[in-house]
Amino acid sequence: MQAFVLGRYGKKLAWPLADVPTPELRDDEVLVQVHAAGVNLLDSKIRDGEFKLILPYRLPLILGHDVAGVVVKVGPRVRQFKLGDEVYARADDFRIGTFAEFVPVKEASLALKPKGLTMEAAASIPLVALTAWQALIEKARLKKGQKVFIQAGSGGVGTFAIQLAKHLGATVATTTSTTNVALVKSLGADVVIDYKTQDFEDVLRDYDVVLNSQDNKTLEKSLRVLKRGGKLISISGPPDPEFGKDIGAPGFVKLVMRLLSSGIRRRAKSRGVGFSFLFMKPNGSQLREITRLFDAGGIRPVMDRVFPFESTNEALAYVEAGRAKGKVVIKIK
Question: What is the pTM assigned to this prediction?
């Protein structure tokens, strides 16, 4: 099969299209023929070597976390899927590789594709939707009537998280640039802050939840817009000790995480606020719940551009530039 193969870590490193063997299938996996793959900043961070402590991949490596495609082979223990099923998923850690013609996915991580969506639209969903679901529903336990601040509302996670929070009955504030104000309002944002002309710390008060996706400066400011008992959930770091425990990290890695997050955890505690780091996990059952939202028409995908397979490097560079409205997708078949 053809795939984009990362031979070594390196910032802004382009990688070549190469012929590689089709992956061997494990008993609890299905082999998906990739029709489309979503592009995420996580791919560039792994390429740059930023996650070597958390995700010690062996090189060479095929990147790519989001997939939509067709089942072409099933392992002997698979019961829920059959040949020809149209499916989508966030590929499993240490089994990623959706920038390729085929990828294996655990049955437990897979779901049938929403019926009304194209393969490209479906491929834009899993990672960002599961991130928002696990942040707002699992960790924050967001309830009707609460107030949530979702940063970067026009980005991949933001466009889904705004819609999910509104579905849950929350009041939603977000940040975006002037050109994207209409977009985030159309998704349901109640309070829109143009970060080029306003500081969210001057506008927001007594929020129940903040979903942080920005830098450390923004993380610190986020503490100050929360009420006592509020929750600050960060998907951009720093990783906390609970995360180290969840992934079974070695002792020295847990120590590093404890040190990296000690400052923000201490300041959060002093303000009576909870802090947690989220690195989303593949989850087929949650993805099936998300599918129901799309099938019911309550939530829609937001896509910026679709690139051809041979332009995968260009697609990742476009995502890294930070100007995409919603998701960027690669069309493979």
Answer: 0.96
